[in-house]
Automatic annotation (TrEMBL):
<dbReference type="GO" id="GO:0030975">
    <property type="term" value="F:thiamine binding"/>
</dbReference>
<dbReference type="GO" id="GO:0004788">
    <property type="term" value="F:thiamine diphosphokinase activity"/>
</dbReference>
<dbReference type="InterPro" id="IPR036759">
    <property type="entry name" value="TPK_catalytic_sf"/>
</dbReference>
<dbReference type="InterPro" id="IPR007373">
    <property type="entry name" value="Thiamin_PyroPKinase_B1-bd"/>
</dbReference>
<keyword id="KW-0067">ATP-binding</keyword>
<protein>
    <recommendedName>
        <fullName>Thiamin pyrophosphokinase thiamin-binding domain-containing protein</fullName>
    </recommendedName>
</protein>
<keyword id="KW-0547">Nucleotide-binding</keyword>
<keyword id="KW-0418">Kinase</keyword>
<feature type="domain" description="Thiamin pyrophosphokinase thiamin-binding">
    <location>
        <begin position="73"/>
        <end position="142"/>
    </location>
</feature>
<dbReference type="InterPro" id="IPR006282">
    <property type="entry name" value="Thi_PPkinase"/>
</dbReference>
<dbReference type="GO" id="GO:0016301">
    <property type="term" value="F:kinase activity"/>
</dbReference>
<dbReference type="InterPro" id="IPR036371">
    <property type="entry name" value="TPK_B1-bd_sf"/>
</dbReference>
<dbReference type="GO" id="GO:0009229">
    <property type="term" value="P:thiamine diphosphate biosynthetic process"/>
</dbReference>
<dbReference type="GO" id="GO:0005524">
    <property type="term" value="F:ATP binding"/>
</dbReference>
<dbReference type="GO" id="GO:0006772">
    <property type="term" value="P:thiamine metabolic process"/>
</dbReference>
<keyword id="KW-0808">Transferase</keyword>
<dbReference type="Pfam" id="PF04265">
    <property type="entry name" value="TPK_B1_binding"/>
</dbReference>
Amino acid sequence: METDYTKSLIQLGQYTLKNNIKLNGIHVLAETSGRLDQIVSNINTLYKSHKLFNDVPVIQIAGESLTWLLKPGVHKIIIPEEIVKSKTWCALIPFGNANSCVSTTGLKWNLNKTCMKFGELVSTSNTYDGHPEVTVDTNVNLVWCMGIKPLTRVES
């Protein structure tokens, strides 16, 4: 049984395949009302999305955050200047992976070939070191989350 979120991605995948549409990325509005079960379910759908779309990133927008899955390899994440200056939070979370080896640059608390797993270290409540680029080198799937609250502010 699939969630509505997963079902919608399956439908999108079938539609793009049938109509020979190539996607560069998918942005999903996925509000959870703060429910942990919904949050975990949405993360599970991110893990399933790579089977549906191969290398097309699926980015969840929920409340004041962006979340997406980083596959094994080296990733460059460009952080908007306003977010870097405001030192908004970010996190790397190794859902379901016990043998992670992660290195980062551009974070206040960088990782250097660090093993992360639940019951030990998870990289939450981190922020940026002042540079607009973060690199993540990982040997396993990781969830990247970042706050976007400064982007939602209305200025008069």
